[in-house]
Amino acid sequence: TACLLFSLAASAQTSNNATTTTEREIQSLFKALQQSGCEFSRNGQWYNASQATEHLQRKYSYLQKKALVSTAEDFIARAASQSSVSSKPYLVRCPGQPELRSQQWFEAALAKTRAAQ
Fold this sequence. Notes:
alpha+beta, 4-stranded antiparallel sheet, 4 helices, 4 strands, 63% helix, disordered N terminus
């Protein structure tokens, strides 16, 4: 019985650590977008980084309530890559750089975050 309790506690701790890591990584993505100076296209309309961050935070909150985000990759795929209304991909354009799909931008930002840890 003690072994089972220890196993359950260890499992819960591992799950909790993964949740903390995921949350930290997603928050770092929001921060990277907020500080990027880039613009974000959603359904043909361009938004500044602050507006884009607010929109994605709302989507993330919704997905959290539905328990649909367990990794930063889940967040990128389910919230930050395309419109849930039109299914059109989101785009990002940054000063002096070519326009690209937001999925690519967020994947690169996540890689930078992980490399810095």
